[in-house]
Design a protein that fits this description.
Order of helices and strands: HHEHHEHHHHEHEHHEHEHEEEEHHEHE
Oligomer: single chain
Radius of gyration: 24 Å
Largest sheet: 6 strands, parallel
Helix content: 40-55%
């Protein structure tokens, strides 16, 4: 599923794990095939995304409402869906910490993806679901009472159970590369918040963009320097600005790369060791030039036009005109602004675990322009690596 359908599915699934709904229910969330809904809908909260509505038995909606169910149908953004679902219990969640609530939503997302990954890797679930649900329910009730320490303990227990489930089936490390793009209108507070995160990010920028950031967005520039010093930010780039290098000769391309490295060092005291560019312009000159300039690798895909071959491995050796080769990441990144990238995460993880020497999932996004499940994925990373470990490159 893509677009609104993917958004509706993820919104409905993860919204049910909000502690306000968990802590005021008599049981943990459950799912049903839309063709076989609950026979008794009394006092149930039922969320039905659009992808399941056509398969509902005729008359089920009227019957559910008649039995006192709170029924919400349609594809909603998660915040809107939660506003509707939580409206009847607004007076019971006044002590709820928003950060704790976000962690529970991330738990729901992690649960879905770990279970899907288990099936993707051709295994049957090994999770003690009763214990998992009891821990989640206890944590949600603690959160509603304002006991955040106990709520976090229960959350840790739930995430540990998911990690054990994942490792039982396929104990292979997976890595998440998160590439943040920079433009003149995305250098402000949103970028500063991302660069100040304790979860690693990678920044794709030219030297000229960093110079502009220093002048127009000093908070973001300071956060970048701080992140580079702490190794929580990876710097990806090359030239001062992205020209049409396929039209230039070897010496001209070399001068652009050298001037770019000098400018990076002057601005942030550090040069990029991974080459990348946003606009089309890769050339067979690059492997020999990048190797001689001390680059360790290259992102062998641009995001604005161009076609690039994809090998059977995420990582390959890119060979240039003189037979010089350099390590390259040959995957086109997933768009973190599209919900289908996060709905299909388990499928992508399963494919890379099966095919790649080092399992890698690769996202790209503009600051602040992401789906809610992007934040869920990063919150999951604070509790463990069951869905991948964020790293800098």
């Amino acid at each position: 599923y893509e677009g609104d359908e993917a958004m509706g599915l993820l919104s409905a699934w993860t919204a049910m794990w909000h502690p306000g709904l968990l802590g005021t229910s008599e049981g943990a969330p459950n799912w049903y095939r839309s063709s076989s809904p609950p026979t008794d809908a009394s006092n149930l909260r039922i969320l039905v995304p659009t992808v399941g509505q056509d398969d509902l038995p005729a008359g089920f909606v009227d019957r559910a409402k008649g039995e006192g169910a709170r029924l919400i149908c349609g594809d909603f953004e998660r915040d809107e869906l939660l506003a509707q679902a939580l409206e009847p219990i607004a007076n019971r969640i006044t002590q709820l910490d928003e950060s704790i609530a976000a962690d529970f939503l991330a738990l729901g997302y992690a649960y879905l993806q770990v279970e899907l990954l288990t099936r993707q890797m051709r295994y049957a679930t090994n999770l003690d679901e009763i214990h998992f649900q009891n821990q989640a329910m206890a944590g949600a009730k603690a959160a509603l009472e304002g006991n955040n320490d106990e709520a976090k303990d229960k959350l840790h227990s739930c995430f540990d159970l998911l990690a054990q489930e994942r490792d039982h089936d396929y104990a292979v490390d997976a890595y998440v590369l998160d590439l943040t793009l920079v433009a003149a209108n995305t250098m402000g507070d949103g970028l500063a918040r991302e660069l100040n995160s304790d979860i690693p990010v990678n920044l794709l920028a030219t030297a000229d963009q960093l110079a502009r950031m220093q002048q127009e967005a000093p908070d973001s520039f300071d956060a970048l320097k701080k992140g580079l010093a702490a190794d929580t930010v990876g710097l990806v780039g090359g030239e001062c600005r992205e020209l049409r290098t396929t039209l230039y000769g070897c010496e001209s391309v070399l001068r652009q790369l050298q001037s770019g490295l000098d400018r990076f060092k002057q601005l942030v005291g550090k040069r990029p060791t991974i080459y990348g560019r946003r606009r089309f312009g890769m050339s067979t000159l690059y492997p020999q030039l990048l190797d001689r300039l001390g680059y360790a690798g290259v992102l062998h895909a641009t995001l604005d036009a161009g076609k690039f071959p994809e090998g059977s491995q995420a990582k390959l050796r890119w060979e240039g005109l003189d037979n010089t080769a350099i390590d390259a990441l040959a995957r086109v990144p997933l768009d973190a602004s599209k919900p289908e990238a996060f709905l299909s995460l388990a499928s992508k993880l399963g494919e890379t675990m099966d095919m790649d020497h080092i399992a890698t999932v690769y996202f790209a996004h503009w600051p602040g322009r992401v789906c809610p499940w992007y934040h869920d994925l990063r919150r999951v990373a604070r509790y463990g690596t069951m869905l991948g470990k964020f790293v800098t490159i």
